[in-house]
């Protein structure tokens, strides 16, 4: 067969609903399989349990939607040849405490492996399980390598912006993380300048802080390289001593 189309494929479980369509066809370089998919998850913890990754996440719901492609027939799927793009969103969950070496990619997202490898500023936030209000981002895939420049995790304790790449076949990463503590010295300082109660700072305000000059006051920046099991963490920057001059010429429409 030179071309086969799957117009509609649906798989439903108590925890999630998968909708997909796709095709495999001959191209100048050989067979190619493409898949357009949307996964709606009502219970993230339940779905991970079904997949054999139970107890790594508490609560949570979310969606994943995008297009993936790989050479060959559908059964030729391999991480090293995967390409495409997708967007991901999750809400109202919490990473459980993950033991070293367990959880793999989830351990990376939870940021729990970082404090054990470096002098980190947020042991109390991430080590025991980072609660999140929202996770969102756009991800491109090329030969099994995930690339993003806008992945964000926001919670009551911190806001984390992530950009860089993660290799699924090699289980390595090269990432830059910017962390804004929701409650802490840096954010308290920003709140003093802005006249905003620390506990009342919204994700929108924190997102703004990451994208304007005041973000330099409150953002900690790290470079994370190496393997998922043994990440190498280098702190690139930390909030400088704050002075009122930092706010000079800051346009009001930044907020």
Describe this structure in words.
The protein is α+β, with helices and mostly antiparallel strands. It is 15% helix and 46% strand. The protein has 6 helices and 11 strands. Strands 1-2-3-4-5-6-7-8-9-10-11 form an 11-stranded antiparallel β-sheet. The N and C termini lie far apart (57 Å).
Topology:
Elements: E1 3-12, E2 16-27, E3 30-41, H1 44-50, E4 57-71, E5 83-95, H2 105-110, H3 123-126, E6 131-142, E7 145-154, E8 158-167, E9 172-181, H4 185-194, H5 203-210, H6 215-218, E10 220-226, E11 231-237
Antiparallel strand pairs: 1-2, 2-3, 3-4, 4-5, 5-6, 6-7, 7-8, 8-9, 9-10, 10-11
| Poorly predicted runs | 183-204, 213-217, 242-255
Order of helices and strands: EEEHEEHHEEEEHHHEE
Strand order of the largest sheet: 1-2-3-4-5-6-7-8-9-10-11
Q: Helicity, in percent?
A: 10-25%
Tell me the radius of gyration.
Answer: 20 Å
**DSSP helical segment count:** 6
What gap, in angstroms, lies between the N and C termini?
57 Å
Main sheet properties: 11 strands, antiparallel
Helix and strand content put the structural class at alpha+beta
Q: Rough shape?
A: globular
Strand content: over 45%
How many runs of DSSP E, i.e. beta strands?
Answer: 11
- The mean pLDDT is 77
